[in-house]
Task: structure prediction
Amino acid sequence: MARNDDDIFKPKLGRIRSLGGARAKSYVNRVLHQISAAGKKGFGSSAGSRVFSGYRIGRGNDALRHRRAGHRFGPSYRRVVIKTRITKFNSSGPKNGIGAARAHLRYIQRDGVAKENEPGQLYDATHEEADGKAFLERSEGDRHQFRFIVSPEDATEMADLKPFVRDLMQAMEKDLDTQLDWVAVEHFNTEHPHTHIVLRGKDELGKDLVIARDYIAHGMRRRASKILTLELGPQTMREITDKFRRQVDQDRFTDLDRELVRDAEGGVIETNVKPVTPADRLKHAMRMGRLRHLERQGLAREIQDGEWELSPNLEATLRRAGERGDIIKTMHRGLNQAGLDAGASEFAIYDPSDDRARVVIGRIIDRGLHDELNDGHYVLVDAADGRVHYIALDPKQDMDDLPKGAIVEVHPASNKMKPSDRVISEVARRNSGLYSPDTHAAYDPSASPEFIQAHVRRLEALRRMNIVRRFTDGSWEIPDDISERIAERQKPADRYPGQINTLSSFSLERQVNAEGATWLDRQLVSSSQLPAGGTRFGKAATVALQRRQEYLIEQGWAEDQNGTIRYRKNLLNLLRQREVQVTGEKIAKENKSTFVQTSNGGRFDGVYRKPVHLASGKFAIIEKSKEFTLVPWRPALERQRGKTVAGAIHGTSVSFDFSKKRGIGIG
Result:
């Protein structure tokens, strides 16, 4: 039988579409996705109005349902605020896995959190002093970790929070039907004493501990409230009244506001109901007082007698006002500890839209945690504009580069595409959605190998954010909606509006007689020095510049020619080379090895060991056999610690090649 060409099946492969991220969805997530896509509602008449979301999958749901059936919490019960974070561990990266757990334990045990401004002390179910190192060793291989902040509303009435926390964890063991492995630290460094609890993500059988989200959201809080009420007794009417009375004039979102929002229908609340009992009359008076206060703030208005309209932005506005009040208290405390003084007009919360402070340069006078649950830090910067700026930092920020006294620059965080992103997108668009160094070179023949390798490094960063995908042949799949994905992944810029760069990890005082090329030197040789004002940083910087200038003249690096200061040619490079040489010889003597200085244009390869902070900047120790060299440090190096790297020196910059192929490439 003759074969017809029309019967021959010829598959034609198209480009591989994005899978929506490098990680495959878990089985449970796939099931929930299909249920949601099918429009399936909750099961049973009581849950018929809710979409099934897996909210009750895991341990603790049964205990929560039984308690709900036979018990309701009234106003006499004492409130406990519990914040929860589930941290998923990852084996790659310097800030992931056990490294992140170790850093968190270090944060919650830092100085000044105990009653007498002492470091925090870990404890557990049976020991007053728990072994944090042993806890971390037991946590090796865990998939995730639970972190709780437990803050009893009446914690100041308790002599010790430990018995309460132990009772809570014991009750949780009964609810979850497993023993729990946890450590905790008490904090008394705020007006609300609280406890940090770190719980392993394994049950007593070594399996992954999965706690129902419903229990985390409600069950823990109910358990804690019941235990606290049993310990201190129910709230008396006088205590409840006093708490509400204090809330009438507060500029934050209060329980009174929560009640008003709950009772409002369509944003309107009726107040012409006549109270009967004395307690009701007192409560009504406080609600009216709160409404009058909100009216003065522009958050409520009386549309007619007995009817009030609440602003739709009431909760968000009051929460921002409360956060601002907390920030002002933090700034006052930081200035007092630094022995400085500033008026209210000199306080500023960093805002990129403020043209006066779009870019802030100054010194760090204080730092701490603004988000203890996520290890998010803040810094107070005494700036050259004469103001003190509060900057909330992304939890991913490496705080080792930001010691007190460091000179830093703050500029707006961007959630937009970088120029390199636009080039990558255009190259991929012309190549069926694929990017490679060869296609980039064909697209732009004038592009240097260093320029192309910089785009590859950007692609590595985008791959870690699950935006692009790399293939074994060195090509990259670029999604059509790359701009939207970048904007989505960089949304933290809304909460953390400032990015911070370290200009010098040395304080002004240390820079005066430092051997290397300091920030002061860069200011002295610059054609446009930083305009410094105010009586704090501005004055201190002016004095330090004068002293540094005198030091350079004494050391022969500058000359005073009839009042005009002449600096040696190529001063910054000479100072940098001298400091690198002196530091390298010192490290070589300590480690009994040989230091080899890499010259400009020279190449190097070896194992990246660790960074070292110098007056000239941050350098990386690259070790090979019994020799090592110092090269300028780059953030991408931290993911290669303990691995072989190669690269080349280009003046004050360096390009790296992290590929696994043999030989030295230029990045």
